[in-house]
Specification:
The protein is an alpha/beta fold and 183 residues long. The chain is 46% helix and 14% strand. It has helices at residues 15-28, 40-50, 68-73, 80-94, 103-112, 140-146, 155-158, 163-179, and strands at residues 6-11, 32-36, 56-60, 98-100, 118-121, 150-151. Strand 1, helix 1 (15-28) and strand 2 form a beta-alpha-beta unit. Helix 5 packs parallel to helix 6 and helix 6 (140-146) packs parallel to helix 8. The protein starts with 5 loop residues before the first strand and ends with a helix.
């Protein structure tokens, strides 16, 4: 079985550096690579670095731990949702394969891009689970019904007293949600 590697580097640098880093990841056979979706120059460099290789480029829209107040502190007056959709459109137009975005923005991103544009959603928690340091969380079923293609589940599993039981619980929730999803 061929393993797929998700390299969550969240690259953000000048074009030349991003292009070389993406080229190196593509040469290694990485399946997915994250690049911050903050500007078109960086994203164009990433696309150039990938060339015609099968590496899937994913633009990080807005980190799921950021609130509107955090964005204001950074000098951005857009809401997290509006900024995520804006960056998703830029990524789509630039030739990226998808985005990293909260499930809270997934439906709007899907409407603003295309059916084949990937939406990878972190900040996934079970109902009643603690948010931790995440500001914009969502349950697996809600994220999938909103349009998420892939879910990122980390700490709820790695910090559980029984990681296997917790992983199995998430898998069950995901399977149930996918069974009800209209594809």
């Amino acid at each position: 079985m061929r393993k797929r590697v998700f390299l969550d580097m969240k690259l953000l640098d000048i074009g030349n550096t991003v292009e070389r880093a993406v080229n190196n990841a593509a040469e290694l056979g990485v399946s997915f690579l994250t690049v911050h979706g903050t500007d078109v120059k960086t994203m164009r460099a990433a696309v150039a670095g990938r060339g015609d290789r099968p590496l899937k480029l994913l633009a990080v829209t807005v980190l799921t731990n950021l609130t509107a107040e955090d964005l204001i502190q950074q000098g951005c007056t857009m809401s997290p949702g509006d900024l995520a959709v804006h960056r998703a459109k830029l990524a789509h137009e630039t030739g990226f394969d998808g985005v990293i975005a909260s499930g809270q923005e997934a439906e709007r991103i899907r409407a603003a891009t295309s059916p084949g544009f990937l939406i990878v959603t972190p900040g996934i928690r079970l109902a009643g689970g603690g948010a931790g340091d995440q500001a914009r969380i969502m349950t697996p079923d809600r994220a999938i019904s909103a349009g998420a293609d892939y879910l990122v589940v980390g700490r709820p599993i790695t910090e559980a007293s029984d990681a296997k039981v917790m992983a199995d619980t998430f898998i069950r929730h995901i399977k149930e949600a996918r069974a009800g999803r209209v594809i």
